[in-house]
Amino acid sequence: MSEQETRDRGEMDADESGEVEAVESDQQEGNSGEEGEVASPEDELEAARAEAAANYDRYLRSVAELDNYRKRTVRMRTEAREDTLRDLLLQVAPVLDNLHRALNQQTQDADSLKQGVELICGQFNEVLKGYGLAEIEAVGQPFDPNLHEALAEVPSAEHEPGTVMEEMEKGYKLNDKVVRASRVVVSKAIEEK
Q1: Helix-helix angle 41-104:110-130, to 10 degrees
Q2: 3-state secondary structure of 184
Q3: Are the C-beta atoms of residues 99 and 123 closer than 8 Å to each other?
Q4: pTM > 0.85: yes or no
Q5: Gap between the Cα atoms of 91 and 66, Å rounded
Q6: How far is CA 154 from the centre of its chain?
Q7: Which residue positions in the chain have pLDDT lower than 50?
Q8: Which of 68, 124, 162, 175 is deepest in the core (most CB within 10 A)?
Q9: CA distances (Å), 90 to each of 25, 85, 94, 99, 129, in order?
Q10: Strand (E) positions, the chain?
Q11: What does the pLDDT look like over 70-102, one tens digit per residue?
């Protein structure tokens, strides 16, 4: 190696060793700073206890808040149910009044009594429609086990097999959900002998 190369190499080694010394001195300063900030075990324990107490307090508050929410929800549901029932009864009361009037009527005419009862049924159906209740159409419709409950099957030449011939009890839907299925008589094919 030439003398020039040896000098250059020595300068590079000196530069590198200077950088290493600077890094080591920075690390030592950082360590000495951290050592001064390290808390004693008693302080750490006290801080952990304070944090645990704060967490426990938050937990108790959350549990109480959840319990209050549940109670409030139950109370609101009960009040909503009572309000709905009260509204329904206020609308049904006039229908009941009309039924009592029809019963107290001194007429011997069966046709006028029938017309009065039909009017009352119409009035009652309108009240129920206001709450989303609708009658299920059954007579003349194909039997649907989701909408109809078959009470009997009767042979019929007039109806297609599986058609509702007669409705024994009306069925109802509440907002498109079946509340009560129609109880029906269904036609079946006549058996040939």
Answers
A1: 160
A2: strand
A3: no
A4: no
A5: 38
A6: 43
A7: 20, 22-34
A8: 124
A9: 89, 9, 8, 15, 15
A10: 133-136, 148-155, 164-169, 171-174, 177-180, 182-188
A11: 999 999 999 998 888 888 878 888 888 888 777
